[in-house]
Amino acid sequence: MTSARPYHWLCLLAAILFEVGGTIIMKLSLGWSFAHAALAGLVLMWLAIGLSYYALARATTCLPVGVAFAFWEALGLTLITLSSVFVLDEPFSLQRLAGLLCVLGGALLVHHGTVQDNADPARPVDAR
């Protein structure tokens, strides 16, 4: 595995934003009143979630899978929760805040506890 470049982190960020967008659209579409609103909401959600998985797959070509998935889930959960509070007027509590801090802390621990192979893939491994 080659070392991660900014491109891979941007792919991860795109994956997170598509996941959040798809989830929020799913909920918002329940309030739409035009013809076939529910179907439009589902199609937009499926498209966003599909793009999220594609971007996540691109990110994991150089980021460790555990790190990418930990950030995808932790930041996605945090942004979805904040969006639900500010966009959907759902309540926020100290318990939610504590949960988000734990999830974010867990993602950072996974990231800092993961050893990334920075070896040159073209160089043969020393077989001793």
Question: Could you give a short description of this structure?
Answer:
This protein is mainly alpha-helical and 128 residues long. It contains 4 helices and no strands. It is 68% helix and 0% strand.
Your description of this structure?
There is one protein chain. The chain has one domain. The longest helix has 23 residues, at 6-28. It is mostly helical. Helices cover 68% and strands 0% of the residues. It has helices at 6-28, 37-59, 65-86, 94-112. The protein contains four helices and no strands.
SSE arrangement:
Layout: H1 6-28, H2 37-59, H3 65-86, H4 94-112
Helix pairs in contact: 1-2, 1-3, 3-4
Principal-axis shape equals flat
Structure summary, number of beta strands: 0
Give the topology string: H per helix, E per strand: HHHH
Q: Into which percent range does the helicity of residues fall?
A: 55-70%
Salient structural properties:
128 residues; mainly alpha; 4 helices; single chain; disordered C terminus
